[in-house]
């Protein structure tokens, strides 16, 4: 850890501890007293049905209409038939970090489009998240971001996860986070769809698929509690060992290219990323952030040496390198030359070892 990183973490700690003095009583209670939670086995990693020639597919779809982009992206993956959603309990996990619009949070338009797609396939949908600890209560954030109304209008139930039960997992491969609590509604779901935002992060360096699942973890076990730890990245990867998304759909329509995670510099990329492999998708997300050249924390090393991605690969959570994935790019705005140049830069970056 550099001196600059140490001072940054100390500053965060002072802010965090000061904010606790004014935090909701429910948050203080959850930090002081651990709930009863039965020990359950970590969920097994499901096979990725979205592959071609043995390689994990990542779809990078560009356009202006999020519903049309989603439909085209899913079609390029081969459709959702392989998930057999009819009658299954499907949990959709957006990023509702706070009450701000994208890129702090996932677009409510995208959430509605995903719920509608799952409903059409016969799934029983719940949309759920737990906000950043100092941004509780999640219930208010779900309403203020429009996610609640969008999800309910499309036919989903909506939950604030900190208001529900927990289970304990102790993944055998975890070192930085050997035992922690995860949301029981998420654990009990038959299918998990992960809807992160592509954005930068002061301590995790970036936030996408892997980081979004920190929101299903009890506040006592989130990396921000151990703000002096130099293992944020490794903790994030290991917190992904409990449950596994069957499909990740990342929102980069309005993404964050510097600062973060609560607020930062926005960029209108008009992109969605889709994959059954969360690590492959994160690799493309980091390359997309890097293409703007505005966030030094993700530069200075290859995509595959980024610590979240490297640790996740070591844990077997997804691909370990570019030879195990294939990036498909499609634009619904074929005359957008700026996107074409950016997509090529992303491809070159991802394929560099």
Number of domain units? 1
What helical percentage do the residues reach? 25-40%
Shape descriptor: globular
How many helices in DSSP terms? 12
Termini Cα gap: 24 Å
Main sheet: strands, sense, barrel: 9 strands, mixed
Describe this structure in words.
By secondary structure, this protein is an alpha/beta fold. It has one domain. 33% of the residues lie in helices and 20% in strands. It has twelve helices and 15 strands. The strands form four sheets. Strands 1, 2, 3, 4, 5, 8, 11, 14 and 15 form a nine-stranded mixed sheet that branches. Helix 4 (108-120) links the parallel strand 3 (89-94) and strand 4 (124-129). Helix 3 crosses helix 4 (108-120), helix 4 (108-120) packs parallel to helix 6 and helix 10 crosses helix 12 (337-350). The longest helix is centred in the first third of the chain and has 18 residues, at 3-20. The relative contact order is 0.17.
């Amino acid at each position: 850890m550099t001196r600059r990183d140490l001072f940054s973490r100390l500053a965060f700690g002072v802010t965090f501890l000061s904010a606790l003095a004014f935090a909701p009583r429910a948050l203080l209670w959850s930090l002081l007293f651990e709930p009863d939670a039965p020990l359950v086995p970590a969920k097994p990693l499901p096979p990725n049905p979205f592959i071609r020639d043995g390689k994990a597919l990542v779809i990078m779809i560009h356009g202006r209409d999020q519903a049309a982009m989603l439909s085209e992206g899913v079609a390029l993956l081969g459709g959702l038939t392989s998930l057999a959603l009819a009658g299954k309990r499907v949990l959709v996990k957006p990023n509702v970090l706070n009450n701000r619009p994208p890129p702090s949070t996932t677009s409510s338009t995208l959430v509605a489009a995903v719920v509608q797609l799952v409903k059409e396939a016969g799934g029983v949908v719940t949309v759920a998240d737990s906000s950043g600890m100092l941004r509780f209560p999640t219930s208010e954030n779900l309403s203020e971001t429009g996610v609640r109304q969008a999800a309910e209008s499309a036919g989903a139930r909506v939950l604030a996860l900190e208001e529900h039960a927990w289970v304990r997992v102790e993944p055998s491969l975890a070192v930085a986070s050997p035992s922690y609590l995860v949301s029981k509604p998420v654990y009990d779901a038959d299918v998990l769809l992960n809807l992160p935002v592509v954005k930068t992060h002061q301590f995790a360096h970036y936030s996408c698929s892997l980081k979004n699942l920190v929101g299903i973890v009890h506040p006592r076990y989130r990396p921000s509690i151990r703000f002096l730890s130099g293992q944020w990245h490794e903790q994030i990867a290991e917190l992904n060992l409990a449950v596994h998304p069957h499909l990740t759909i990342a929102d980069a329509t309005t993404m964050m290219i510097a600062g973060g995670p609560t607020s930062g510099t926005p960029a209108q990329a008009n992109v969605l990323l889709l994959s059954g492999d969360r690590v492959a998708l994160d690799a493309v997300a980091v390359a997309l952030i890097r293409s703007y050249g505005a966030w030094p924390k993700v530069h200075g090393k290859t995509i595959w040496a980024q610590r979240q991605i490297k640790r996740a690969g070591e844990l077997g959570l997804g691909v370990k390198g570019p030879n195990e994935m294939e990036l498909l790019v499609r634009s619904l705005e074929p005359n957008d030359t700026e996107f074409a140049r950016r997509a090529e830069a992303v491809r070159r970056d991802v394929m560099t070892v």
